[in-house]
Design a protein that fits this description.
heterodimer, A: 1261 residues, alpha+beta, 6-stranded antiparallel β-sheet, B: 102 residues, alpha/beta, 4-stranded parallel β-sheet, 4 helices, 41% helix, 26% strand, globular
Chain lengths: 1261, 102
């Protein structure tokens, strides 16, 4: 009976729809079978969709029919795509579907075909009339359905769990290997015994009995308990029991699967304990860290927030509840994410991330630079119970640093690109010329600079004028270079910083001219100034103890750094809602300032006056001239006291304005946006300072030192008693100082941690505290030195707090090792200093590189090394030296000067003359001879005249040498492959140049390159000489004279400069009275080996020709010899026996793999002589044909090698072309024919790519 | 913690997998998949969980699964996966904050 027949489009939704359709069968199928039915249909439909045809029109059909108590289901896909695979596949991720079908269905199968149908049946599932709904218990179906057949014993043992089965009375029937190991009993010991007796103690007996009762009733049970083992110990297990039934549904017993969870139990108990401890210490921790300047976070291992301080909320902008999970990756700026992510992963995995600076996007969307340190949260035994982190806001420092680096970079680029101003001052006439770019730097239009030194002077800032002019005067006097930074005032009043470099040129001793470059470095100067300001203010803020004491110092620090003369701070009086004077400063502290005195008693409401405006808008404000400002109540005093420009900025805490600071100048100043931006930030810092001072000091409990957090803090913390005794230090401090806690606790802190030079100060301060109860160091952030491992000093930053407990005072110091930061600062300072050095070094290096590059080109240009060396010498003068000579060692050991050049053309001849008359020779002790003998170069950095005289005995020679001049010299060897080939001498004369290490290195480099080139050229010369000699020996010296027959040959090796011996050969020799042998051959390959075979072939053929008669027989003999002696090489030969018989001349020809000779008849017809045969030297059986042609007077025969045919690669010079060419050669003599052939194949340079040999035999007409 | 709900089959597994991979991208030290709201689960869902478990094992991450209703749970039991995966009764137990009621 079909109860369901549906068709769905083959899409994922079909699976859910098909299942929903099954819900309609609830009255026809037992409820406990419905789950199976739904699951199996889901699997088959999924399979049909996954593997069915990829046709958008495809459908899946589901049919359900009932037959008695059996439910029959068929699923049909659109085509034959069904893939059957049972069980999990190797990757463990697929194949589960059919495994489920196989396990749950009573029967199932596939009907292959179009379309494919998969079916399954569930027995005992369809309801028949009389069944009452809702009475049957849900069946706990276990794998395999029926017990025990489906339980493969092997499978049981492989289960990573203990499996125990009992019958319905609780008697054990199955006990797998894991159960043996887990509970300690072997299967043989327990099968047949009651489970209850084994695995439970008497106390649990009732519970077990109840469980068995429930199992018998068909309810599963599972739980965790401590099961007894055979040896009396207990093991924690998680056990799941389920009833099993016989195939007919009657209870068969139960099966229980247990896994060992004792490890987990242990870990869990441990974790609970530690978390409790952590919660206990949390209060202490909170107290300690609330006052910390860093944001602090602590999370447990599952990622739950344990603690975050107020700073954490303030820094990130996230309220506590949003920090409930560690989410640093959520706030890392996208550009830093790639860098931070792996570090964060390491932190999550238990690692650390220390002082990592990155950009944070706060909840408000602003970007802050922060320095994060994250690491494991450890309990007192050093075990990891979570992660903790600290984040410090370093935005300002970072931005200032980045801006500084950027501006330095720009300066460098400007200099490099030549985008700077240049000037030229003719000292005598006083004329000054500026480049247009310099005019632009000075704010002038192109061409409007006045052109005198006075015009230049006028622009210099009054404060810098004297200094700069003095520096220029010094440079002129000394004739030296100078470099200065100074300010100019542009026509529009803007002040710019310039950096100038100049050089003086003299005529004789009179300075005549000064030339230099100028660059605008205002931005860098400005940044340096602002950094200095930031540091100055920060210093005041960390050192000051009270707001009152800090106020004049803060204002003074800003005023001095930015060049303003007066300043005042105003604080909000909350009771009256007005701003009141809180302190003032003026640059001249000797006297009172009347404007400041007059301003004290003012109180400003919101919006009134400069402070009131700043207060109302919470923004900085600028007034170019207060006398002209409509909202400035103090204008009368200001005018009287000549106070002009002013600016003010708010002191902010969050959005609240705590007060304002204002500054005044006695000149008019236009708004400086950069300054306003910066003081805005300062205002926030000062606001925070005010708040911090207002807040109560935090309480530190002495136990806090013991807390888990303290111990694992990444910041080093040290505690000291009032008498200077070291009370405690945490592991980070141990690491920082290289000390062990147990070695140093109880000792005087100064002894072990403070460098000797600072100990006195430390002890004095401590004594003062004991007397007065006041400590100047408390609450301050200081940079000092620490002592590492009792030896080296290192810079550190620390802040000290007093632990607020009754009794003798305890101090806690938080320390940071700032070695790296210091190093970075020093590095930055070096950067500028190195800049110029690097530039000049780079230029020199570039010069050397280009010199060597030029030299390399010259050296590679020709194989004639004498010509090449002459060019090298010309290149060296004047770039490297004033004169240069190159000596080569001749084969007889003597020296020969191959090149001499001099910067002064008039002296070249002189130098040559000197070398000719007084050549260096091998038996001399110094100079060239020594360099050649030792292969090491020598450098004479400076040659005093006496030295020349001392070394040169001959007065005539000395006179010549002095005329040539030698201030400095160097001689470098020409060494290649360990052999001294010669030496190059470089000398300076007129230029007065002195050679140094760098020059010598360059010269040596040149020497090495030149030597290599010479060596290559010589090698090449030698090789081609050998090749030519060898080749000649393989060819007949001259051709024999044959009566009334002309013989001519042309042999042309490939390329004129060839170094290899070719394989072509030819021969003409007398055999007997009236017979001659004519041979043309080609041995495969080139080189000496080929040449040897060529010789063998030629001589074998000569002797064979005498012993045997016919050419074919001679070639056969040659074949035998070659096979025996020639190795793998082969050769081709055309051989003819020429015989005079009366007027006739007969030629018998045999060819072994060689092109057939061509016969040119006197009437112009061309025909080949002979027939093709096998090449020689390889095969035992060869086929050779002997043919005879008769030559009449005027007929000619041409033998040639296939080089002739191969030569013309682009247009094949085949034998058709050859014949055509030959037809044009009638009437030619043998020599003319040969030449004609050679000219036809050789390229215009007379070089042939392959060897060519041509032999022409012509019967004279 | 990933809470899955409704029927977990081929029509919904892609969404669930995307969500799962997104979570894994954050490299949590401990991943908990909560099946309590899942009403149906077949081999497609199974595959999803097993794949996540394999990835967790490979990357050294702990992964726990909160039991779903019986109809879901039995699928894991039949495939013997209940013994391979770290099943717990409720999420608090998974992250070790509460006693697991043994």
């Amino acid at each position: 009976m079909t109860v369901l027949d549906r068709r769905y489009p083959a899409a994922p939704q079909a699976v859910a729809e098909a299942r929903r359709a099954l819900d309609g069968l609830s009255r026809l199928v037992r409820p406990d079978c419905l789950d199976n039915l739904r699951l199996l249909v889901s699997e088959l439909v999924t399979n049909a969709i996954r593997h069915g045809p990829a046709d958008p029109e495809a459908t899946v059909a589901v049919t359900v029919s009932l037959d008695g108590r059996t439910v029959h289901v068929e699923v049909e896909d659109g085509g034959g795509g069904f893939r059957a695979r049972l069980g999990p596949a190797e990757d463990g991720t697929s194949g589960w579907g059919l495994y489920l079908v196989d396990q749950l269905a009573t029967r199932w199968g596939i009907r292959e075909g179009e379309p494919t149908r998969v079916w399954f049946e569930l027995d005992h599932c369809a309801l028949v009339e009389g069944d009452r709904l809702g009475r049957s218990r849900p069946e706990r179906t276990l794998p395999g359905g029926t017990w025990p057949d489906a339980w493969d014993p092997v499978l049981l043992d492989e289960l990573p769990a203990a499996v125990v089965a009992t019958d319905r009375d609780g008697v054990i029937t199955r006990w797998n290997g894991h159960a043996e190991r887990l509970f300690g009993w072997a299967a043989a010991e327990v099968v047949g015994r009651k489970l209850g007796e084994l695995l439970v103690g008497p106390a649990d007996a009732n519970a077990v009995a109840r469980t068995m009762e429930r199992l018998r009733a068909g309810d599963p049970w599972e739980g965790e308990w401590a099961a007894p083992r055979k040896d009396g110990t207990h093991v924690w297990v998680r056990i799941a029991n389920a009833p099993i039934r016989h195939a007919d549904g009657t209870p068969a017993g139960m099966i229980g699967v247990s896994i060992d969870i004792s490890e987990r139990k242990k870990i869990q108990a441990e974790l609970d304990r530690r978390l409790q401890e952590l919660r206990d210490s949390e209060r202490r921790f909170r107290l300690m860290s609330e006052n910390a300047p860093s944001a602090i976070f602590a999370y447990d291992l599952s990622g739950e927030l344990l603690y975050a301080n107020q700073e954490a909320e303030k820094l990130t902008g996230h309220p506590l509840e949003e920090l409930a999970r560690p989410r640093i990756l959520d706030w890392v700026h996208p550009d830093d994410l790639a860098r931070i992510r792996p570090m964060w992963d390491a932190v999550l995995a238990g690692g650390e991330m220390r002082d990592e600076e990155y950009r944070m996007v706060t909840a408000g969307g602003t970007v802050r630079w922060t320095s994060g340190s994250w690491g494991p949260l450890l309990d007192e035994r050093g075990e990891r119970i979570g992660i903790q982190g600290r984040e410090r806001d370093v935005t300002e420092r970072k931005e200032a640093e980045l801006a500084l680096v950027a501006s330095e970079e720009r300066l460098r680029m400007a200099l490099d690109a030549g985008a700077m101003g240049t000037w030229d001052w003719e000292i005598v006439s006083g004329r000054v010329r500026w480049s247009e770019s310099l005019e632009a730097i000075h704010g002038l239009d192109a061409g409007t600079f006045g052109g005198t030194f006075d015009d230049f002077q006028r622009d210099i800032h009054p404060e810098d004028r004297d200094r700069l002019l003095a520096a220029i005067a010094d440079a002129v006097t000394a004739g030296a270079e100078y470099q200065q930074d100074y300010r100019i005032v542009r026509p529009d009043g803007a002040v710019r910083w310039l950096s100038v470099r100049g050089q003086v040129f003299t005529e004789g001793s009179t300075p005549v001219r000064m030339v230099g470059v100028c660059a605008d470095i205002t931005e860098r100067k400005e940044l340096e100034r602002r950094l200095a300001l930031k540091d100055a203010v920060a210093e005041v803020l960390v050192e000051a103890e009270t707001v009152e004491a800090a106020t004049p110092r803060i204002i003074g620090a800003i005023g001095r750094a930015m060049g303003w003369e007066l300043g005042a701070m105003w604080l909000v009086d909350e009771d009256r809602d007005v701003l009141r004077f809180a302190g003032g400063w003026h640059a001249d502290h000797e006297s009172k300032d009347d404007f400041l005195e007059g301003t004290r008693d003012f109180a400003f409401e919101r919006g009134i006056g400069l402070p009131g405006r700043v207060w109302a808008n919470a923004q900085p404000a600028w007034i170019p001239d207060v006398g002209a400002d409509p909202n400035f109540p103090r204008a009368p005093i200001a005018i009287a006291e000549e106070v002009r420009a002013a600016f003010g900025f708010p002191l902010m805490l969050g959005r609240e304005v705590l007060g304002a600071i204002e500054f005044f100048s006695r000149s008019i100043r236009s708004p400086d946006e950069g300054l306003l931006r910066m003081v805005r930030v300062l205002g926030i810092q000062i606001g925070q300072f005010l708040e911090r001072k207002g807040a109560e000091a935090a309480v530190l409990e002495s136990e806090a030192m013991k807390s888990a957090i303290l111990g694992s803090s990444l910041e080093a913390i040290v505690t000291m008693a009032e008498d200077g005794t070291l009370v405690d230090l945490n592991p980070a401090a141990e690491e920082m100082f290289g000390l062990r806690r147990e070695d140093v606790v109880g000792k005087e802190l100064a002894e072990v941690m403070i460098p000797e030079s600072l100990r006195g100060r430390h002890r004095d301060a401590l004594a003062r505290y004991r007397q007065t109860g006041e400590g100047r160091s408390l609450g301050r952030r200081m940079e000092l030195s620490g002592l590492r491992g009792g030896g080296t000093e290192f810079p550190l930053e620390l802040s000290v707090a007093r632990v607020d407990l009754p009794g003798p005072a305890l101090f806690t110091a938080t320390l940071r090792d700032i070695t790296d930061r210091r190093r970075a600062e020093e590095l930055r300072a070096e950067l500028l200093a190195n800049e110029r050095t690097a530039r000049s070094a780079a230029e020199a290096a570039r010069e050397r590189m280009s010199f060597l590059a030029d030299a390399s080109v010259i050296l590679a240009s020709s194989l004639d090394f004498r010509k090449t060396l002459a060019k090298v010498a010309r290149l060296a003068v004047p770039r490297l030296a004033d004169w240069c000579s190159i000596d080569m060692v001749e084969p007889d050991g003597s020296f020969q000067a191959v090149a001499v050049t001099h910067v002064d053309p008039a002296k070249v001849a002189l130098a040559r003359e000197y070398r000719r008359r007084f050549p260096p020779s091998p038996d001399q002790e110094g100079g060239v001879a020594r360099v050649i003998a030792t292969g090491s170069s020598v450098l004479y950095p400076e040659i005093p005249d006496e030295m020349l005289g001392a070394n040169v005995g001959d007065p005539e020679q000395l006179a010549l040498a002095e005329e040539l001049g030698q201030r400095s010299a160097m001689i470098v060897p020409l060494v290649a492959r360990g052999r001294s080939l010669g030496a190059i001498t470089f000398a300076s004369a007129e230029s007065g140049r002195l050679f140094g290490r760098a020059d010598l290195e360059l010269a040596e480099d040149l020497g090495r390159r030149a030597a290599l080139a010479i060596d290559n050229a010589r090698l090449f010369e030698e090789r081609s000489h050998i090749a030519r000699t060898l080749q000649r020996s393989l060819l007949p010296q001259r051709l024999p004279e044959i009566p009334r027959v002309e013989v001519a040959a042309v042999y042309q090796p490939a390329g004129v400069t060839r170094t290899e011996v070719g394989g072509d050969f030819y021969d003409v020799f007398e055999i007997g009275d009236r017979a001659w042998g004519v041979a043309m051959g080609d041995v495969c390959g080139k080189g000496v080996e080929a040449a040897a075979l060529t010789g063998l072939a030629r001589h074998t053929l000569r002797s064979a020709a005498i012993r045997v008669h016919g050419p074919a027989a001679a070639l056969e003999e040659l074949n035998e010899v070659l096979r025996r002696e020639g190795g793998e090489r082969f050769c081709t030969v055309a051989y003819g026996r020429l015989e005079r018989a009366g007027d006739d001349t007969r030629l018998a020809v045999a060819c072994g793999g060689h092109p057939l000779p061509l016969v040119l008849r006197s009437d112009g017809t061309v025909e080949p002589a002979g027939e093709p045969g096998t090449l020689l030297g390889i095969f035992e059986d060869i086929e050779l044909h002997e043919r005879e042609v008769t030559l009449h007077p005027g007929d000619a025969v041409v033998f040639y090698t296939d080089g002739l045919v191969d030569t013309r690669m682009s247009e094949p010079f085949d034998d058709v072309a050859l014949r055509a060419l030959l037809q044009t050669c009638t009437e030619f003599t043998a020599q003319q024919i040969a030449d004609c052939f050679r000219d036809a194949v050789a390229d215009p340079q007379g070089e042939a790519p392959d060897d060519i040999a041509i032999l022409v035999v012509r019967v004279t007409p | 913690m990933l809470e899955l709900a409704g029927d977990l089959d081929v029509s919904s597994a892609d969404d669930a997998e995307r969500e799962l991979l997104r979570l894994e991208d954050g490299a949590p030290p401990h991943l908990v998949i909560d099946l309590r709201q899942v009403t149906f689960l077949d081999s497609t869902g199974l595959r999803l969980i097993v794949a996540a478990d394999s990835r967790a094992r490979r990357s050294g991450r702990r992964m726990s699964v909160v039991h779903g209703p019986e109809s879901v749970r039995r699928v894991f039991r039949i495939t013997l996966l209940e013994w391979r995966l770290d099943f717990v009764d409720d999420p608090a137990q998974a992250i070790g904050l509460e006693d697991d009621g043994s």
